[in-house]
Design brief:
It contains three helices and four strands. It is α+β, with helices and mostly antiparallel strands.
Length: about 100
């Protein structure tokens, strides 16, 4: 399982920890990933995702999973979430 957010694409960063004596030590900066269950209003079911805490705040700010995915670009979403986005858009198009 990769350390990558399924909604925003945020991943591991690599850098240096620099001490007072200017010694450099390689380190990895990991994203704050959490396992959450989000509910899709259009599909009427819940979806388990591994996303960052920042993405969870963004989903709640935009008004839920469906509206977040409508505004999100496809290149940053994982394959699973792209399929979910397509299902949601087909369902809302059929309802309208």
């Amino acid at each position: 399982m990769s350390r990558r957010c399924e909604l925003t694409g945020k991943a591991v960063l690599v850098g240096n920890l620099v001490s007072h004596s200017n010694r450099k030590t390689k380190t990895r900066f990991l994203p704050n990933l959490v396992n959450v269950t989000l509910i899709s209003d259009a599909l009427g079911r819940s979806v388990r995702l591994r996303i960052t805490a920042h993405a969870l705040r963004s989903v709640e700010h935009r008004g839920g999973l469906d509206s977040f995915l409508n505004k999100a670009a496809d290149d940053e979403l994982s394959l699973r979430v792209r399929r979910l986005k397509r299902e949601i858009s087909e369902k809302t198009a059929a309802a309208a």
